[in-house]
Design a protein that fits this description.
Strand order of the largest sheet: 2-1-3-4
Number of helices: 2
Order of helices and strands: EEHEEH
Shape: globular
Mean pLDDT: 93
Structural class: alpha+beta
Strand content: 35-45%
Radius of gyration: 13 Å
Number of strands: 4
């Protein structure tokens, strides 16, 4: 099971900060079929990158089977993605 709680990511550049993901929470059980949909630039890839352990969130947690994805080493996260 994957439990996501209050996930956030903001990109800061030379202009205004862009809040790509703003306090997203969700729960996905084994066997669930899920679609992530939205307009271009709405944060879908950022969200999936954080859930997959590729991009570290600014805030919030991604729990996989009761363990925070970000408590794993880089190598362990790579094995999880495979």
């Amino acid at each position: 099971m994957i439990v996501i709680k209050d996930l956030q990511k903001t990109y800061k550049g030379t202009g205004q900060p862009v809040q790509a993901v703003n306090r997203v929470s969700a729960e996905f059980r084994d066997g669930d079929f899920v679609s992530i949909v939205g307009h271009s630039g709405s944060g879908k890839s950022t969200f999936l990158s954080m859930v997959g352990g590729i991009l570290r969130p600014d805030a919030g947690t991604v729990m996989l089977d009761d363990r925070d994805v970000w408590s794993h080493t880089d190598e362990e996260r790579s094995r999880l993605r495979n």
